[in-house]
Design goal:
427 residues; alpha+beta; Pnp Oxidase, Chain A; Membrane-bound Lytic Murein Transglycosylase D, Chain A; six-stranded antiparallel sheet; elongated; structural molecule activity; LysM domain-containing protein; Phage_T4_Gp19
Length: 427
């Protein structure tokens, strides 16, 4: 609605602008090109059951807040380092004097939203919302002399949903105009998300899990999450052993790896929205946690059946290990919290927490945890041999004792039990 002009609030400033617009003595003043708070229009469209919620006489400020994260480096005290955070948009509140037609339009929309909000087709899903267009003018839009030149600014607020509606307070003590208020939350007006906020479109990479077969090839449909986690925690340990007693000619003490450390991945707050997504995702997670029976040693006379864990490939950005979150891993733990249910008791929204452990293929002929070298042959320890003497005789250099120790999980290179079979790398 084009609200009626009430008063010129900033007299001196407006008169100054008006004076500067005069082209000469006796000429008619031209309208200033400033947006005036009493000349605006609000249109709410694209909502269920209606295309327009009527005319409004008041609108709170349209605002965008650019969140920043602060880093305070040690030794640098001139000011913080500011890095981009999340852009947020405060709610807007529309208000107007109530009239029968406009009030009924709002109530019709609110009833439609409430039906879907509570238990309809949109229950638990991302609600699409409406589009709110706010236009500010420098002159009445109906003024033909200013046609096409009087729009100062326009904001298109996407995904607007009602967060509150307030009927006027009534009293028999006076004759004030009855004013209703409608407050809307929205996804913004800068157009920076490219549709990603809805989880249904846009070019953003999605967190994906793929079940793998024994050969490391995909074994079924991907499990793709519509909403990426805000954080992914990755940790890895590398156990070390301090070796003080070393073969002659080697300085000590030295540190060496006892075994290859496990890389663990923790993902919190994965949001599932919608009945179908909850059922499909949770069902796959439970199935992938169950071990599968495998026949081992077929044709060797030592056939047996073992329960083996399933391997999945986790991907979030990048194309390979170390580039984004890309690992072949075993799903070791899952925790699901159902946060919304339909009237029939079916979960329609959930939060999931996953824990995975990376699976690293062992090199041929090595202990999968030792990281030893492939190939070579087996050598049995005799008498009082030590690793330096064995590597000198078998590999041509006593300095290669560390490779043999790592490949065979030996803590003390000077104390190797006679009769033990050692796997030696290729020369």
């Amino acid at each position: 609605m084009i609200a009626p002009m009430q008063a010129l609030m900033n007299g001196p400033a407006a008169l100054g602008a008006l004076s500067s617009s005069l082209k000469g003595a006796g000429s008619a003043p031209t309208a200033p090109g400033y947006g005036l708070t009493m000349w605006f229009q609000v249109k709410v469209s694209g909502v269920t059951g209606t295309q327009d919620l009527g005319k409004w006489s008041g609108c709170s400020a349209v605002q965008a807040n650019f969140g920043t994260e602060t880093i305070n480096p040690g030794g640098s005290y001139g000011g913080p380092v500011l890095v981009p955070g999340r852009i947020t948009y405060p709610d807007i509140t529309l208000e107007r004097a109530m009239d029968k037609a406009g009030a009924e339009e709002v109530r019709t929309w609110l009833r439609s939203v409430a039906k879907d909000w509570i238990g309809g087709a949109q229950a638990g899903k991302d609600y699409p919302g409406a589009t709110v267009t706010i236009t500010v003018y420098s002159a009445l839009p109906s003024d033909p002399s200013a046609a096409g030149r009087n729009v100062v600014a326009e904001w298109v607020l996407t995904g607007a949903v009602p967060v509150s509606w307030t009927a006027p307070a009534l009293s028999g003590k006076g004759g004030a105009v009855a004013v209703e208020k409608l407050t809307l939350a929205h996804r913004g007006f800068l157009g920076e998300d490219g549709g990603e906020a809805t989880g249904t479109s846009g070019g953003q990479a999605r967190l994906t899990l793929t079940l793998l077969d024994d050969s490391g090839n995909p074994a079924g449909a991907d499990l793709e999450f519509a909403y990426n986690p805000a954080e992914v925690s990755v940790s890895k340990s590398s156990p070390l052993l301090t070796v003080h007693t070393l073969p002659e000619g080697h300085e000590g003490p030295q540190l060496r790896h006892v075994e290859r450390g496990d890389l663990n991945i923790n993902i919190d707050d994965l949001h599932l929205v919608g009945q179908q997504e909850v059922a499909t995702t949770v069902g796959k997670v439970w199935a992938w946690l169950d071990p599968q029976a495998k026949d081992i040693g077929a044709g060797t006379g030592k056939e047996t059946s073992k329960l083996l864990g399933r391997k999945v490939r986790i991907r979030l950005g990048g194309t390979g290990r170390g580039d984004g979150v890309n690992h072949d891993a075993a799903l070791t733990h899952a925790h699901v919290t159902y946060t919304r249910f339909s009237a029939a008791g079916v979960p329609t929204r959930a939060k999931v927490r996953l824990t995975l452990q990376e699976v690293v293929e062992a090199l041929p002929g090595t202990n999968p945890h030792s990281g030893g070298l492939p190939g070579g042959h087996t050598r049995t320890v005799t008498g009082a041999e030590n690793l330096a003497g064995i590597t000198a005789a078998e590999l041509g250099s006593p300095a290669r004792w560390r490779e043999v120790a790592d490949a065979n999980g030996i803590d003390d290179p000077l104390r190797v039990r006679p009769g033990r079979a050692l796997r030696l790398p290729g020369a």
